[in-house]
Specification:
Blueprint: E1 17-22, H1 25-28, H2 32-42, E2 47-48, H3 60-68, E3 70-77, H4 85-100, E4 107-112, H5 117-122, H6 125-136, H7 141-155, E5 160-161, H8 168-194, H9 199-207, E6 216-221, H10 228-239, E7 245-249, H11 252-259, H12 261-273, H13 287-294, E8 298-302, H14 308-315, E9 327-332, H15 335-340, E10 345-348, H16 354-371
Parallel strand pairs: 1-2, 1-3, 3-4, 4-5, 6-9, 6-10, 7-8, 8-9
Helix pairs in contact: 2-8, 3-4, 4-7, 8-16, 11-12
């Protein structure tokens, strides 16, 4: 049983940027927007954001190109957003892009930063004043109408309101989570369309117990070229978004030999907890870090592990550092690594038949383009 579908020519995987941020520099550049950008960067989202203060006609072609190469658009409506004709033209462009590609799930998410959404929607308050000033400056009637239409459409979309949050950090956390959710959904659907769903996929899928209250460690083994990494990546991409912490580490043994186990362990912990951690002795993880890990569900893939000691160094004995309901998938060429590591669920990845192998080979570049957005490259 197998399935393979061609992906859309406008797929999210083919976009250069995950998120495009439109904002009024003088309002939020040094504060909210910079903090938001930093949060998105920590989650490995490729974000287009233009911090240039001076903008002219020579910059516009670059901006148009960036808009066309973006999957999601985040519009930060602040007090003086509408006073900038640049921001208004930017909004018109991205709304047109969104409307033309509605079937491709290109999304616009408004963020109302210390402004009333009704002021944006109805062009009242500071937005009404700004548009009136533009009118006095003899702006073209057609352009004025385009601005009003774009403001109205964007303000009617579901978004985030700063007035409903006690702190900006909480708001940024929710925005980041929403963006990741939308992108995960798109990439996950594209991956399913490009991956060969053969007996290996369904066999491993059946091993995952989503209602489990224990830590599940699933071992995948087989000779090189059978698709262990691709299979693990498919599981990660399809299900990891449901977990508080998630991390996919490629070539674990190779990288650990090159940089040391401390390096690999810190990468894993930093990704799971969303912080830049520097622990000198990973085998003696601070109690507070362990406590946090045990209070969250995580989805982890450890790819190409050559010895069982690495497993204990990274996740503790039998995943003892992880919270109930967590899932760890380990890939290796050596079955004995899994047995000596105390892994109960072990699956031998079967080599695909020639027809499925040919189909997978024809799609492999696009599949890894999708997966690379979420796989943590260690070197």
């Amino acid at each position: 049983m197998a399935m393979s579908l061609a992906s859309s020519s406008h797929s999210a995987a083919q976009k250069k940027y995950d998120v495009f941020i439109s904002f009024r520099g003088e309002d939020t550049r040094a504060g909210f927007t910079s903090h938001l950008h930093a949060a998105l960067s920590r989650t490995y989202l490729h974000t287009y954001i233009d911090y240039r203060i001076e903008k002219g006609d020579e910059v516009w072609p670059e901006l148009e190109k960036a808009i066309k190469q973006s999957t999601l658009f985040l519009v930060v409506f602040s007090e003086n957003y509408a006073s900038s004709t640049w921001c208004l033209n930017e909004l018109v462009e991205l709304m047109e892009c969104r409307n033309k590609n509605e079937d491709d799930n290109i999304g616009v998410i408004p963020v109302f930063y210390h402004v009333d959404p009704s002021h944006v929607r109805k062009q009242t308050g500071s937005y009404g004043s700004a548009l009136a000033k533009h009118k006095q400056e003899n702006q073209d009637d057609k352009m004025m109408q385009n601005w009003k239409n774009a403001l109205f459409q964007a303000a009617n979309l579901s978004g985030f309101h700063s007035s409903t949050y006690r702190t900006e950090s909480n708001m940024i956390e929710d925005i980041t989570r929403a963006l990741l959710g939308k992108l995960n959904h798109q990439y996950r659907d594209e991956l399913t369309c490009n991956l060969i769903l053969d007996e290996n996929y369904w066999a491993v899928r059946s091993l995952i117990k989503f209602d489990s209250t224990t830590v599940q460690i699933i071992g995948l083994w087989g000779m090189g070229g059978t698709g262990k990494t691709t299979l693990a990546a498919a599981m990660f991409q399809r299900f990891s978004f449901k977990y508080e912490g998630n991390c996919f580490l490629e070539r674990v043994t190779e990288v650990s030999k090159k940089h040391g186990i401390n390096y690999t362990c810190n990468k894993l912990l930093s990704k799971l907890l969303g912080e830049d951690l520097r622990i000198d002795t990973p085998k003696v993880i601070p109690a507070m870090i362990k406590r946090r890990l045990r209070h969250m569900k995580s989805f982890i893939v450890l790819d190409d592990v050559h010895n069982s000691e690495l497993l204990q160094d990274l996740i503790g004995v039998r995943g003892g550092w992880l919270g109930p309901g967590s899932i760890v998938i380990v890939t290796t060429r050596d079955k004995h690594v899994l047995i000596s590591g105390g892994i109960d669920e072990i699956y031998e990845v079967k080599k695909m038949n020639s027809q499925n192998s040919l189909q997978l080979f024809s799609h492999v570049k696009e599949v890894y383009s999708i997966l690379s957005t979420f796989i943590l490259i260690l070197i």
